[in-house]
Amino acid sequence: MRIVIRNGTVVNTTGASKADVLVDGERIAALAAPESGLADGWAADADRVIDAEGKYVLPGGIDGHTHMEMPFGGTSSSDTFATGTAAAAWGGTTTIIDFAVQAKGTSLLSTLDKWHSKADGQCAIDYGFHMIVSDVNDGTLKEMETCIDSGVNTFKMFMAYPGVFYATDGEILRAMQKARETGSMVMMHAENGIAIDQLVAQALAQGRTDPVQHGLTRPPELEGEATSRAITLAKVTGAPLYIVHLSSAQALDAVTAARDTGQNVFAETCPQYLFLSIDDMAKPDFEGAKYVASPPLRPREHQAELWRGLRTNDLSLVSTDHCPFCFVEQKELGRGDFSKIPNGMPGVEHRIDLLHQGVVRGEISLQRWVEISSTAPARMFGLYPRKGAVQPGSDADIVVYDPAARQTLSAATHHMNVDYSAYEGMELVGKVDTVLSRGRVVVDADGFHGNAGHGQFLERELSQYLI
Ligand code: URP
Ligand code: ZN
Ligand code: ZN
Ligand code: ZN
């Protein structure tokens, strides 16, 4: 297939300019200024010509943090790799990196096999894996090396969830030493789970059982403390550190201070922390359960700080932490006991659109929008320049984006397999128009043309942000 995208404004992190794009097979073959006339020749023998007049031509989004069909609290997140990657494509995301979850007592390699068998042949877009390490011992530390050799070189650990995923400081230290030795990276869920569990037990004993208690028992100070502790452990070991789903000013302050000293500390935030707040978790009739995720949504004041972090690069990028659970069947498990509400929110479909509101409101530049949603994740997770740029030689993962279109988010129209939208009724400026995944049109004006199995597993290189 040869596809020509004409008359659009190509946006990379380096700038935005009018350019025509030639796609040949799975790759971008060439870019040309419209006045060069080159595209006339390309169009003459193209299979398809897409008119992008008035639209942006962007590198496909990379969502570095998703949980498709993830087991949690006796249930499983409601998007499969098939439904979740289709929804991602609808929203202009052409790569996801999902988390394989080691169950305690099992090996990393059997975990990886299990996740491959869930995802392989199912995905509409390309995908990679991170590994959640729940058990640190001599065997699993050794297995990290094999994971790295098979393109899985980022290892998530938890300072939260005692008895489930929780790792002690000693275990974290050992994994970080291994990361330092191998050039890989530890990703940290930084909340002080030991202290949180006490607050949760006290709340339940006092009969405080509503969803909002999830937020009140996980105060931002305990995210700030855990973030600082993780940074200290990283400093002692010389390992790089990536903080996942950073939600609060306290945690951002810790990251900012570390980065100011030159330490290799990176962090992502998520759209829910930029656009939603603890007030959503306080909605009556158990509706607050829709917004229960960890770390929790914060008071609205934190949002300005997070936007600041995105501007100053103290927050490197935005991922969704997409982990949907249906309201009716699944969030219900925690009615009467907030601690049993499955943790996680849907979002893979709307990251690019929501971040575009940051451009509209003047919080971030057009180029920074592309950087935090595509180029930075590509570099951070070892996919650049195959992914993350509209340039010759890169995969033809391309989004034609209409910045003037309007849309209203709703569960009635979204494509994620979940019965509610966290953004129900929110009116947005901008909308995805056409999406290419490795040279194939997967979404356009008349719908979804992707198919399960088009997406390939990406063996990732080591992070390109380590210096
Ligand atoms: O509540 C959340 N974030 N669920 C997904 C798992 C995780 O900790 O990222
Ligand atoms: Zn987490
Ligand atoms: Zn997550
Ligand atoms: Zn079509």
Automatic annotation (TrEMBL):
<dbReference type="InterPro" id="IPR050378">
    <property type="entry name" value="Metallo-dep_Hydrolases_sf"/>
</dbReference>
<keyword id="KW-0378">Hydrolase</keyword>
<dbReference type="GO" id="GO:0046872">
    <property type="term" value="F:metal ion binding"/>
</dbReference>
<dbReference type="InterPro" id="IPR032466">
    <property type="entry name" value="Metal_Hydrolase"/>
</dbReference>
<comment type="similarity">
    <text>Belongs to the metallo-dependent hydrolases superfamily. Hydantoinase/dihydropyrimidinase family.</text>
</comment>
<dbReference type="InterPro" id="IPR011778">
    <property type="entry name" value="Hydantoinase/dihydroPyrase"/>
</dbReference>
<feature type="domain" description="Amidohydrolase-related">
    <location>
        <begin position="56"/>
        <end position="442"/>
    </location>
</feature>
<dbReference type="Pfam" id="PF01979">
    <property type="entry name" value="Amidohydro_1"/>
</dbReference>
<dbReference type="GO" id="GO:0005829">
    <property type="term" value="C:cytosol"/>
</dbReference>
<keyword id="KW-0479">Metal-binding</keyword>
<dbReference type="GO" id="GO:0004157">
    <property type="term" value="F:dihydropyrimidinase activity"/>
</dbReference>
<protein>
    <submittedName>
        <fullName>Dihydropyrimidinase</fullName>
        <ecNumber>3.5.2.2</ecNumber>
    </submittedName>
</protein>
<feature type="modified residue" description="N6-carboxylysine">
    <location>
        <position position="156"/>
    </location>
</feature>
<dbReference type="InterPro" id="IPR006680">
    <property type="entry name" value="Amidohydro-rel"/>
</dbReference>
<dbReference type="InterPro" id="IPR011059">
    <property type="entry name" value="Metal-dep_hydrolase_composite"/>
</dbReference>
